[in-house]
Amino acid sequence: MVALRLSLLLVSFVTAVCANPVFRSLVAHEARQGVPSGFVAKGPAAPDTQLSLRIALVQSDTAGLEAALLDVSTPSSANYGNHLSKEEVEEFVKPSADSVAKVNEWLSSNGLKATTISPAGDWLSVSMPVKQANELLGADFTVFAHQDTGKEAVRTLSYSIPTALKGHLDLVHPTITFPNPRSILPVVSSPITSISNISSAAVPASCASQVTPACLQALYGIPTTRATQSSNGLGVSGFISQFANKADLKTFLGKFRTDVSSATTFALQTLDGGSNSQSASQAGVEANLDIQYTVGVATGVPTTFISVGNNFQDGDLEGFLDIINFLLGESNPPQVLTTSYGQDESTISSSLANQLCNAYSQLGARGVSILFASGDGGVSGSQSQQCTTFIPTFPSGCPFMTSVGATTGINPEKAATFSSGGFSNVFTKPSYQSTAVSNYLTALGSTNSGKFNKAGRGFPDVAAQGQNVQIVVGGRTEAVAGTSCSSPIFASVVSLLNDQLIAAGKKPLGFLNPFLYANPGAFNDITTGSNPGCNTNGFPTKAGWDPVTGLGTPNFAKLKAAAGL
Predict the structure, then answer these.
(1) 170 labelled catalytic
(2) Total domains in the fold of the chain
(3) The pLDDT of residue 201 is above 50
(4) What secondary structure letter does DSSP report for 4?
(5) Do the annotations mark residue 314 as ligand-binding?
(6) How open is the CA angle 80-83-87, to the nearest 5 degrees?
(7) Which domain holds residue 319?
(8) Where do the annotations place Ca(2+) binding (predicted)?
(9) pTM for the complete prediction?
(10) Domain boundary at 173, 192, 212, which?
């Protein structure tokens, strides 16, 4: 035993001596102001606790990728629709050979070896004990506990990197980003009611209180005819062990889409140890909702449930980056991806938020429309909570995806009070929405002054029905509510437009926002309602874009005409 300790001490001494002196000078890299609300420090992390760290390298040309993305996504551009290939995107993203060499030299000189975990090589994974991480990063890794949930995490409030790696190493994660105490946001359920003996023919008359596919077809002019293009794909993200049940889908179609074969189903992909149990007791409300309102609305569009397990490679991002890297690694990812999960923007560092946002731009440049539910807390964030200033949600603040808010009722539709919306504290207002947002802020005047960032990217971009939505779980019909309903509904509209575009020999819509904001007349403008929170009435809806329902709900015929069909 003594000999073993001496051997370990010798290895530690040799590693320290051999470490390249060029990496000994550290410079502060990221820090946060104090411990996040709800967390308390319990004491220093044990020196031998193993940390699984992810290192993001500086990408070659993020500005060039953004320019290329907007070039192929803006209707007035000569390159509109000429989406980039996998290889072309990776050329923008891959770090320089110098960056790769320097970071690997730093790790190697400290006895460490990293594994590449992204298609373009811009993300690395490396493990090391707390003692070594504290030394290499000038950090103070501490055990923090969340007071309500009891969950513990080892984090630091600041860290540094070698001066020689400035401009080569973008960030280390998880360091200053804390776990999201609410986890990623699933749907908010309304009081559950059991409904029986509903016939498809009777649904349109009851749309004010029971939203079904037939209601959406009537409200938005969504076609019932079957899609024809097998190359057109719709992806549905699945997280936190939410499983999509095929028996429930069959029951749902048998009740609400009697014109569609009840044998219609979906494909499955898994990552991070994901699965899709078909046990009735494990049928997920969120997963069933997302599948039933894609398969059941985007008639005939090939739909894939992408189940992300809990063996995350991206730490506190809980699979959000993993699923994007997974799709970026595919030669033919789905043309539309809908995700009904999210979190408060304040839970992650701005550098990490930018990294994930840039990953969305990569998929967008390749012709993928990325849609997310905006959240269910009004102006108080992903869920209703106490606050003094408005809490934007993530990733809705990212300018390279489409955020979907919620409406309720008919004749007219109005904003659902829970529909999260506002302005990012991380991302600035993108050019495609500059006029729309400026017009709203002018009309808003001094209302809510000082409670939000007027220069931030505004969200949501669009909206769809999100209350009293009928789904089947465990063989029983239930009513649910949330922007989690709205995202798959709007995604289905996009997928049906893509089907017709591909059939006409045209390209799919890809990154949607420049097209959407260029065609505000293609939406049903919502001018009634608001999204209260933080002891305020939140933002009021107004004519045109607003941070409650965005541009409004879809008008399929007008969107089809805007797309040149």
Answers:
(1) no
(2) 2
(3) no
(4) H
(5) no
(6) 150
(7) 200-562
(8) 525-526, 544, 546
(9) 0.92
(10) 173
